[in-house]
């Protein structure tokens, strides 16, 4: 085997939808061409404990996994794995400094650094640029700010992202709406960003409704409205419960997932008098096998990118009701592949679910149309092909004539690519030589 291109996939939490997309993309790459190391952080800083410096590898990296963490799956598939305990999703200046230092040491030996999500995207790209990594790629799973944040924080995040654009060679956006928003806000030049789709695992075994209900402890004949996701502010769990209550007096509910608002969700269920017919089942690794238990899938999110779980629900043949946020309408086309409601309107969420339960022919028609729209763009192989082209600069969008429209702020356009010589920065000459060695077909 010749010199493989060394890729670091850096993500704050290797979990949930973004983690699944990152891992499926890494596993879809040709191992004869690419040597991938997955780098992730910790879920949170435990009270009373300071952030731990350094990098954990192997069993030590796997020993501190949270429920839903996918690092063990990456290791089992043969990928190298690293964990940086100081890389946390929440703002933590002292921990962020430790994480940046660890990333700067770790990333120096890679040909490509591909970051995901806000915190890993900021620290990872800054560290990779500092160490002269020849190719820096970032995936936007959604915008790194939302309306629930204070205005000053949204402004700060926007400025940081615009500055990081000048340290990024290529962008990927999960969904066309996310790509358009990134261009509109000046986070990426139109010619430097391309759209990808929320890939999910290949089609599972045929759906078995009865087996799925047995797994969840549900009675066989009851109507069930379910959802899957982290129980946090983004997913609006209290709105979901209120919507369930509005859907009818005999409807059962299932939430698959866990998170910081679990207690608040449980309390709202009790206050609504739904305890006897709501199942909060926590994290599960068998989500595709559980989805056939649902008669309707509801998504109450306040903001989203393009959720993988919607693709999984559609693939399982479950009709969908979702909030009309961000890239969700690219999947849920009203009155064609499902129903959309405004965010923060649980009574409308419940009314839409009640309609699909009352109109089974309509529900089946939506579900069939949704499943038929899931083409090979949602398969891991398609993402693997995009990543390979992006990592090597083949069909690089930066070389094309830029599309009209707003770009990043002056001075924040993508750097010259490694094939044309990187912009001067620490380690640049060494990094450029390493890149040429890795991509030269004569080296084998």
UniProtKB/TrEMBL annotation:
Molecular function GO labels: glycosyltransferase activity
Pfam families with a match to the protein in the record: Glyco_transf_4, Glycos_transf_1
Organism: Actinocatenispora thailandica
Skewed-composition ranges (Pro residues): 403-425
Domain Glycosyl transferase family: 209-372
Protein name: Uncharacterized protein
InterPro entries (UniProt xref): Glyco_trans_1, Glyco_trans_4-like_N
Organism ancestry: Bacteria, Bacillati, Actinomycetota, Actinomycetes, Micromonosporales
Chain intervals for the UniProt region annotation (Disordered): 395-444
UniProt-listed PANTHER family: D-INOSITOL 3-PHOSPHATE GLYCOSYLTRANSFERASE, GLYCOSYLTRANSFERASE
